[in-house]
Each structure stands twice: as C-alpha cells, then as structure tokens.
Write a structure and sequence with these properties.
The strands form 2 sheets. Strands 1, 2, 3, 4, 5, 6, 7, 8, 9 and 10 form a 10-stranded antiparallel beta sheet that branches. A hairpin with a 4-residue loop joins strand 5 and strand 6. The protein is about 5% helix and about 45% strand.
Length: about 240
C-alpha cells in the first residue's frame, strides 16, 4: 500500500546538478541551500549541503546525518562515500514513481548496507502541457489569496480553471515556448475580496500570447506584455 510522500512538497526547492565540489544551483542560477533527492517504497529523502549528508529513510524511522566527505567524480556522475552512507548521482532523467514529475538525476543511496533507488536534482519540464494540472502562486507579481482556490488544467487542446473567482474554459495552443489561448468563456459571479482582482489580472495577461518558462523548481512562469507574469505550481 503506497503512503503519501511528504518529500514531494520539499521538492519545491530542488536544485540542479552542480559541478563536483561546487554548490548546486537554484532557480535563476543562485546558490541553492541544498541538493535534494527522494525515493519511494519505502519513502526516503536525502539532503546534501556543503557541510553534511542528511538521510531520512523507512518513512522517517531511520536517520543518518554524517559530515559531507566531498563529491568524487565518476564515469557516470559523482559519488559521496562515508561509513554509513554512500550516494551515487547520475545525470539521467528519473521518475519518482508517485506522480508524472521527472527529475534531472537518478540517485542511488546505500544506507547501512541497504541500497535504494530514487531521483534528485531539478524538476524537468513536462513533455507537453496536455494532461497537466496547476495552481496559481502569483498573478501580476501579487501572491494569490489563500482563501480563494485556484486551478489551471490543460486537457487536449482545451484550457480550463479558476483564477480565484469564476470558472473559465477555452482553446489553447503551444509551441513549447509560447502559449496562446482563444476567447475564454466564464461564469459571471461577482466575488468578494481579492478573487475578482486576481481573475481580471489573469484575463488581461492572457489577452495576447504569453511566454512559457519552467523554473528549476518545477514552477511554470507565464510572461506577458510588459513583463507581467503568472506563476503556477504543478499539482499533477
């Protein structure tokens, strides 16, 4: 029986594969606090910082924290080796087995002699928007209101969702770099608080083709005229 994997939430801060001995890179190329990896069945997580390797396994029942011995280059990537914990990171796309998310690295961890497979590094963009579902983080640079549920789904050539007030739907097309939506139909409720302002800002943004960008933490950034953006995080 599969258990919910809390580590998926931690991967909002996933970092990319760094050169040996250098800190991993976060969104925008800034130094990241840690390199993260995870696995399932049984669940485990691994955090690599400049100072330590922090492993949690068997659904949190096993904890191993050891000094970072430094990465050693190998023919397939890079390795970390200590008495209790060994880590092999290979730059090869990997699926976490619990969702459609894919990561840049395949990771093998040996903890107290027990070998486990998993994924790490930055979250890779989906091959296609069709079949993906998202929630809004911010619209026009303003964080969305926590009391207004939001969603954005791509289904075949149709887009639908809510920016915090009315439900909308319409056609979309994308070439991988640009997203264009046709006229969108929506319900016509008036919403209190920030919901209506969020919705108006989103519709204004989508009035012309927008640029598509996927950050290394997996978020989707839609950039419109004048640099206005909508930032979304993936649900499935």
């Amino acid at each position: 029986m599969q258990k919910t994997l809390p580590a998926l939430a931690l991967f909002a801060a996933l970092t990319g594969c760094a050169t040996v001995g250098a800190p991993p890179q976060g969104p925008g190329g800034a130094p990241a606090a840690a390199y993260m990896a995870l696995g399932t069945e049984p669940d485990w997580t691994l955090e690599i910082t400049d100072a330590r390797l922090n492993y949690s396994g068997d659904y949190g029942e096993t904890k191993i924290i050891v000094p970072n011995p430094g990465a050693r280059a190998s023919t397939t990537g890079r390795n970390y080796t200590t008495n209790r914990l060994a880590v092999a990171i290979t730059p090869m796309p990997c699926s976490d087995g619990m969702s459609d998310r894919r990561y840049a690295d395949t990771v093998r961890v040996t903890a107290d002699g027990k070998s486990l497979q998993g994924c790490g590094g930055r979250i890779l963009p989906p091959d296609t928007l069709a079949g993906t579902s998202w929630t809004f983080v911010s619209i026009g640079g303003v964080p969305v209101a926590s009391d207004r549920p939001t969603s954005l789904q791509f289904d075949g050539t149709r887009i639908s969702g809510s920016a915090g007030c009315n439900r909308f739907t319409g056609d979309f097309k994308s070439d991988g770099a640009t997203l264009t939506t046709g006229p969108m139909a929506s319900t016509r409720m008036a919403c209190p608080g920030a919901g209506m302002a969020q919705e108006n800002a989103f519709f204004a943004l989508m009035g012309a083709p927008v640029g598509l960008e996927f950050a290394s933490d997996g978020t989707l950034i839609l950039t419109g005229t004048g640099g206005k953006t909508a930032v979304l995080k993936r649900v499935i």
